[in-house]
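INFO  loader      accepted 1 record
INFO  loader      residues=444
INFO  predictor   begin
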Amino acid sequence: MKILLIGGGARESAIAHALKKNEEVKLYTLMKNKNPGIARLSEEIKLAKETDLDAVKEFAEKVKPDLAVIGPEAPLGEGVVDLLEEMGISAVGPKKLAAQIETNKEFMRNLFKKYNIKGSLMYKAFEEYGEELESFIDELTEKGIKAVVKPVGLTGGKGVKVVGEQLKDNEEAKKYAKEIFETGLGGGKVLIEEKLEGVEFTLHGFVDGDTIKFTPFVQDHPHALEGDEGSITGGMGSYSCPDHKLPFMTEEDVKLAKEIMEETVKALKEEVGGYKGILYGQFMLTKEGPKIIEYNARFGDPEAMNLLAILKNDFLEVCEAIVNKKLKDIDVEFENKATVCKYVVPKGYPDNPVRGEPITVDEEAIKKTGAILHYASVNEDNGSLYMTGSRAVAVVGVADTIEEAERIAEEATKYIKGEVYHRSDIGKKELIKKRIEKMNELRR
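INFO  predictor   done
INFO  writer      dumping tokens
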């Protein structure tokens, strides 16, 4: 069974490991940099930009895969699935039109409005800077609501800024909106939304167009520094619990979050003819219940590493059920284990990361800790590893309790050396307790 994998980060490393648990799988990977972990698992690799559709086509023609799995969002936004399907290759991932659920935040908000999906919020999209945009930000403030400023398109998870966090006040928010128009960031359109108060969590679903099968809930940590301080990143690490929900969630929260995603899948069927692949909802748990911050059209990174580490099924079976519309016929099951994932990143990340610096990873020592290792934004050159500026290496602890899973992941970070740092507080009970207290406070 030949599988074409597109992408070369830690998320794709987790996908590669999950696929290779099936001995029939032969992996062929197209990625931008040489990820040593993925390269080892692959029969053949091609180094090219994941958005270079000509390179994808050429590699697919050569390999003739039975199935393709798409890791990152950028190629989905370029229409890589449309291309592969035209070539007669089934792909786990949405077509360009359906991928807009991530690649076009205005499309996502309008979908919620049109189909009256629960968990929506106040928003307005703008094509140019002007009085209307300024007034909307001021109107939110008058209602006691802070503004969130987002480019409408893709920015690699780093374009969102919030008043009271990255933006000091409304004047800075307006200035940032202006900057988005001037630089063309994320397509140069701006979405202004209300800031939600609460605790963030994520939920993934495997979708075949009709059926959605859910994974455990995961909590990501987007802030760069301990205690949830610093710049917003692509995610510094994440954890999941043995009971598959999060400690600050009620059964009602679980039910509502799943209903929102089910309604979204139905709406996408009506609007664009269906969605297949992985759907990843990023939620804010507010005192009114879960609300959607945004959707992603693929696995979360880091969350894929938590989820695929405890998936009981043969992942190939799940992928085949997605493309063959057979998800209703299988049970997707996960072990009742806790997982903690921690990223080791270059110093200065995300604002001013060191690039091209060497990093050393003692794989044997990490293996002895019991942790799972995934290489991310590194490039292997002549046997040495160099950081390329984004998150470098991830380690995952899996155990019966969060405390033990956290200890395993933390122990493993000691064997990664270089101009690097990580958040040691992810998965620690003090930080989780803070989240529980925040939710209790809001619910009072």
